[in-house]
Amino acid sequence: MTRKPRIPPSPLPQRRGVDPMRVKLPVDGAWETVRDHLVERLKAGPGVIDGMLRDGLIVGADGVPVAPDDPYVPSTFVWFHRDLPDEVPVPYGIDVVYRDEHIVVADKPHFLATTPRGSHVVETALARLRRELGIPALGAAHRLDRLTAGLVLFTVRPEERGAYQTLFGERRVHKQYEAVAAHDPAVELPRTVRSHIVKERGIIAAYEVQGADPNSESRIELAERTGALARYRLTPHTGRTHQLRVHMNTLGLPILGDPVYPRVMGPVPPDDFRRPLQLLSRVLEFRDPVTGADHRFVSARELGAWTSYDTWENGSAGGQ
Predict the structure, then answer these.
(1) Which of 86, 233, 235, 319 could form a Cys-Cys staple with 304, CB 3.0–4.6 A?
(2) Greatest distance between any 2 Cα atoms in the chain
(3) Are the beta carbons of 114 and 146 closer than 8 angstroms?
(4) Contact 163/289 with Cβ under 8 angstroms?
(5) Do 300 and 95 form a contact (C-beta atoms < 8 A)?
(6) Is the distance from CB of 144 to CB of 114 less than 8 angstroms?
(7) In whole angstroms, what is the distance from residue 47 CA to residue 281 CA?
(8) 3-state DSSP: the chain helix, strand, coil percent, rounded to 5?
């Protein structure tokens, strides 16, 4: 078995809980200098890379700044800090449900991304927890959609992260969600929904391919109803992107506050935290792959449209 080459530790510290960018120089290439490769690869705009090199902001594994004329060496690494975007703070806290020397289980609010991605970098659960808990090595074992609230598992030790990620990859984590949507007595529940879901990069909405072999499965149950609304218990047996949202929409029961299903809504201002998606990761249950302990965690959050529909509908802070 051929082992992957060891990645050197970053010579740069985190900034506000965000790791520096790491670039590996490819084995194949005709670049004469590191500068030439970075200009072509990063497409950062005229003069940006030259300015960073001049200011000593790009460093090698030894922490020494890369010079503009340093020769290109295949399979080596360079690091630099990206410019952190101006982000509107998500005005809700993230609660720690459990913490030991191996894992942290957090109960995240709506609108907070799990990990840095796109325009959400500092305002993410991972960056916040790294800062608040003082654990720079904290990593996410899985992701929860930015618009979905509830339980997320993080790992404390990088060398153990793979073991926890494998739990999710092998479907050895029992996950249970709650959602609020319209009540339709014509929809027979409980029901198991299976379909073939495709999520293409760069396209907001996932879609189902009729007649294709199923790659997703969700158990949908009616937990409670009041008037025209109902609270549903959702148990995913697979983990496709937007799976529960797609399956609820397929049943004609789109989740309240969903800006994508049944139709993609227009963009909203970054400071618009009204009417959050009424989907909550309520339960995480698994056997710890490191300690052997059996864990069961339950979110303490409530879905605002269920506890007070008018508050949620009017976009008040209590509608979380």
Answers:
(1) 319
(2) 71
(3) yes
(4) yes
(5) yes
(6) yes
(7) 45
(8) 20, 30, 55
In the 8-state DSSP scheme, what is residue 107?
E
Catalytic residue list contains 145:
yes
Cα–Cα distance for residue pair 104/124, rounded to 1 Å: 15
- Give the DSSP per-residue string, 234-274: EEESS--TTHHHHHHHHTT-PBTT-SSSSSPPPP--TT---
Report the distance separating Cα 44 and Cα 51, nearest Å: 11
Of these residues, 70, 95, 145, 288, which one is catalytic? 145
Q: Would you place residue 2 in the very low, low, confident or very high pLDDT band (cuts 50, 70, 90)? A: very low
pLDDT at 5 (0 to 100)? 62
Residue 7 confidence class, pLDDT cut points 50, 70, 90: confident
Calpha distance 92→203 (Å, rounded)? 28
Half-sphere exposure of 236 toward its Cβ, with a 13 Å CA cutoff?
27
Among 175, 315, 202, 192, CA closest to 256: 315
Q: Give which of 225, 241, 173, 296 is closest to 233, Cα–Cα.
A: 225
Q: Using only C-alpha atoms, what is the Rg of the chain?
A: 22
pLDDT of residue 290: 97
At 214, the pLDDT band (50, 70, 90 cuts) reads very high
